[in-house]
Design a protein that fits this description.
Blueprint (H helix, E strand, L loop, with lengths): L1 H17 L4 E2 H7 L1 H13 L4 H25 L5 E4 L5 E4 L14 H12 L4 H17 L25 H10 L3 E5 L8 E13 L2 E8 L4 E6 L3 E7 L11 H11 L4 E10 L4 H6 L2 E6 L2 E9 L2 H6 L5 E5 L1 H15 L2
Antiparallel strand pairs: 1-3, 2-3, 4-5, 4-8, 5-6, 6-7, 9-11, 9-12, 10-11
Helix pairs in contact: 1-4, 3-4, 5-6
Length: about 325
């Protein structure tokens, strides 16, 4: 069975690499012998009418094809999904996208990449990180460098608790538009968003998705913890150009409140809000268990202040105070 699957994956990869135009599922099904044989067996084993047998065969092929496609992507093959003018979805693997120059790593570079792989120790990413480390060993990672050593001096971790992370990560990788329900901090009910995802970035321990919002026709940043329900993929391609990674990070930083062009004054309980104190440009004791802080004010500061609840009181500017109150009322209203 393992040999048969490996042969099937090899044939599928060769078909996708050898074509000059996208091939539909139907064309791939008719071109690969393993799919033809599987379809014949499924039809013969299906009970009932001929129509039900064909439907069962179609379902079995679709599941097999999706698994094979995911397996090839896990192995590193870049498979593009292209939708034709008549709405038919096709697949191909361009040779220029699947060709890499020789890679050489010195000991320090290999160790740094091994340490980076140690970050991902959850869900689907753990297997990908383990596979990457095996390749690093082959590329020259010294045997005495163990990035998984239990008592290492560095223990990097990036926590991921949001269910939306994995489907969005895969959508960013495969350049697939997505649809999800998103609840803004000052909204009582979530709204549907149609997004072309660019990248996932982590700021202040929170994950953000940067992408192109089709409904608004502009770039937007979404905090993953505010995505409700399931993330659904769409077959159509991107309509907006994808900026480089540096520009995306600057966009996330701005929306997450890292880019400040003015100051705000807040009251903060004396024993609370240490992240805010780290950002403060001035601190003054008020007595009675309260301090006054001057902090940089940029986009997203209101959402951050809400997280500290009754430990923070905004003094000025008035617009920031109003934004914080609106968010608190939305949370209180359910």
């Amino acid at each position: 069975m393992a040999i048969a699957k490996a042969e099937r994956l090899m044939n599928l990869a060769l078909c996708l690499l050898g074509t000059r135009r996208p091939l539909s599922k139907r064309e791939l099904r008719e071109s690969i012998e393993a799919y033809v044989e599987a379809s014949g067996r499924d039809r013969g084993a299906a009970s009932g009418s001929e129509k039900s047998g064909v439907a069962a065969s179609d379902d079995s092929f679709n599941r097999m094809f999706e698994r094979d496609k995911d397996d090839l992507r896990e192995l590193g093959l870049v498979i593009e999904t292209v939708e034709s003018l008549d709405g038919e979805v096709g697949y191909l693997a361009r040779r220029d996208s699947n060709r890499l120059p020789p890679i050489t790593l010195d000991a320090e570079e290999a160790a740094a990449l091994g340490l980076a792989a140690k970050v991902w120790q959850q869900a689907r990413l753990a297997g990908a990180a383990s596979g990457a480390l095996q390749k690093l060993r082959a590329a020259g990672l010294p045997e005495d460098v163990d990035p998984y050593e239990a008592h290492g001096a560095l223990e990097p971790r990036i926590p991921v608790h949001e269910a939306a992370f994995e489907p969005l990560m895969l959508a960013c990788r495969d350049r697939r538009p997505v649809v999800f329900d998103y609840r803004k901090a000052n909204a009582a009910q979530p709204g549907t968003r149609h997004v072309e995802p660019w990248a996932l970035e982590c700021w202040r321990g929170h994950w953000y998705l940067a992408g192109f919002d089709r409904d608004r026709g502009a770039e937007r940043v979404f905090r993953l913890s505010r995505i409700t329900g399931r993330v659904r993929s769409r077959g159509s391609g991107f309509t907006a150009p994808v900026p480089d990674v540096v520009t995306v990070r600057e966009t996330v930083a701005s929306w997450a409140g890292e880019s400040a062009d003015r100051s705000a004054r807040i009251r903060l309980r004396a024993d609370a809000g240490y992240p805010l104190r780290a950002k403060a440009t001035a601190v003054r004791e008020l007595g009675d268990g309260w301090d006054e802080l001057e902090i940089p004010y940029g986009h997203g500061l209101d959402a951050w202040l809400v997280e500290f609840g009754p430990d923070v009181v905004v003094l000025e500017p008035a617009e920031l105070r109003a934004d914080v109150l609106d968010r608190l009322r939305a949370v209180a209203g359910g």
